[in-house]
């Protein structure tokens, strides 16, 4: 048979396919890790369930690879500052834990290695990696910057409503509020009194105030920090003002010290029965269901999506990716990538979930056993679906850490009524605009919302 252009192309395609199949059959973690045996990879972890879950799985990785994972637990509120100090001095942990709003800062500064350095290396890249297997909103929000993947979704969050069915039933409610307005006007008055409060919204000054509290109430009313079209500060808009006023009004149905409460304090208040409803991250489900930490009676826990706002379902979105430090040497970078690829893999997703983590992999949540065992799964998957999740729940640009400090300081004052919503909005808007103007967003030197 004569060799035509078509047969040559077909032969090349078959050869490539067989080569890919051979690679898939012969690639193994142990073989890939052999050159890096004895390497120690350093990491920063948080004191949250997803990291405790990873810690349970790490010994298996170390046994299979001979690579040691050494992690240090750091408080969330000081983690960004710690990274910046380490990176600018030419050091830092080999594994980079990047919050959804840090990735622009880290990538723009050149502190993270684009992962295609490793995914294009057949010796390191697991053929089963399957980037499309992650929820798109997670990979795009936590791991991608300017079209390049810098990290894989690791500790993944959706805002959910946790509620005590038994407490609500005793007060005459058949379920949780369907809307934020209903929570404020109906549930709030009936469930508050005698040292008990209807609801708690974690609002400690810092990223918890600016993201978990401030931004959540903007989005539920259809407001935003920045106008997506004009890129001008947007807190003085009618929708943003409505959201900030709603939060002020909700204060009378929340514990008086809520502006000093972080996630752990709010979850503990729920677990101890001080409040029957909270909106918290999916990642705190293991803490809420731990009988050693919770007094919620059997069958009393309910989990659903966040209530609907005037803008519909706009649940909080958060989470972290794991990437590689560009300051680390080549061996540590490769070893770090192998761990990232392994801990976020589809193969290990079920074990990670069962250990208390929240995987970013779509396939694991199709498992009937996982869906029936973990009450957070269905509302979380709904919250991460296309058209519901808000990728820029917090604006994803490198200047966010500066802006977050401004929002946190003044957001607390607005929440307490020390500043009116109008005055507080103007204070924040003016400072935010100055930062963005200096950075070059209005002159066209920088891209806008990612």
UniProtKB/TrEMBL annotation:
<keyword id="KW-0813">Transport</keyword>
<protein>
    <submittedName>
        <fullName>Sugar ABC transporter</fullName>
    </submittedName>
</protein>
<comment type="similarity">
    <text>Belongs to the bacterial solute-binding protein 1 family.</text>
</comment>
<dbReference type="InterPro" id="IPR050490">
    <property type="entry name" value="Bact_solute-bd_prot1"/>
</dbReference>
<dbReference type="InterPro" id="IPR006059">
    <property type="entry name" value="SBP"/>
</dbReference>
<feature type="signal peptide">
    <location>
        <begin position="1"/>
        <end position="24"/>
    </location>
</feature>
<dbReference type="Pfam" id="PF01547">
    <property type="entry name" value="SBP_bac_1"/>
</dbReference>
<keyword id="KW-0732">Signal</keyword>
């Amino acid at each position: 048979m004569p060799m035509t252009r078509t047969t040559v192309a077909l032969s090349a395609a078959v050869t490539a396919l067989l080569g890919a199949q051979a690679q898939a059959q012969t690639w193994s973690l142990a073989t890939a890790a052999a050159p890096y045996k004895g390497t120690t990879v350093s990491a920063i972890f948080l004191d949250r369930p997803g990291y405790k879950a990873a810690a349970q799985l790490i010994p298996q990785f170390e046994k299979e690879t001979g690579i040691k994972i050494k992690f240090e637990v750091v408080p969330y509120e000081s983690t960004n500052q710690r990274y910046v100090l380490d990176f600018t001095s030419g050091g830092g942990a080999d594994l980079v834990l990047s919050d959804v709003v840090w990735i622009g800062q880290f990538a723009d500064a050149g502190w993270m290695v684009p992962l295609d350095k490793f995914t294009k290396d057949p010796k390191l890249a697991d053929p089963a990696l399957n980037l499309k297997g992650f929820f798109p909103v997670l990979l795009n929000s936590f791991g991608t910057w300017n079209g390049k993947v810098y990290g894989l979704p690791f500790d993944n969050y959706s805002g959910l409503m946790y509620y005590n069915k038994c407490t609500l039933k005793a007060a005459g409610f058949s379920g949780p509020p369907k809307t934020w307005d209903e929570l404020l006007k109906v549930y709030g008055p009936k469930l508050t009194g005698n040292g008990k409060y209807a609801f708690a919204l974690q609002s400690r000054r810092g990223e918890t105030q600016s993201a978990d509290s401030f931004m959540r109430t903007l989005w539920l009313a259809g407001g935003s920090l920045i106008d997506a079209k004009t890129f001008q500060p947007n807190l003085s808009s009618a929708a943003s003002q409505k959201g900030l006023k709603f939060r002020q009004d909700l204060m009378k149905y929340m514990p008086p010290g809520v502006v000093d409460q972080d996630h752990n304090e709010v979850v503990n208040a729920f677990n101890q029965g001080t409040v029957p409803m909270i909106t918290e991250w999916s990642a705190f489900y293991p803490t809420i269901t731990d009988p050693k930490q919770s007094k919620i009676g059997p069958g009393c826990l309910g989990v659903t999506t966040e209530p609907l706002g005037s803008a519909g379902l706009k649940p909080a979105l958060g989470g972290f990716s794991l990437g590689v430090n560009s300051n680390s040497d080549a061996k540590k970078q490769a070893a770090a990538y192998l761990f990232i690829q392994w801990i976020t893999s589809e193969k290990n997703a079920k074990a990670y979930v069962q250990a208390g983590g929240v995987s970013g992999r779509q396939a694991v949540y199709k498992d009937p056993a996982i869906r029936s065992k973990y009450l957070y799964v269905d509302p979380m998957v709904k919250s991460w679906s296309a058209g519901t999740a808000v990728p820029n729940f917090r604006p994803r640009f490198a200047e966010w850490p500066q802006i977050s400090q401004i929002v946190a300081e003044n957001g607390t004052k607005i929440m307490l009524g020390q500043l009116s919503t109008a005055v507080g909005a103007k204070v924040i808007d003016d400072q935010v605009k100055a930062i963005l103007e200096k950075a070059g967003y209005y002159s066209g030197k920088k891209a806008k919302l990612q």
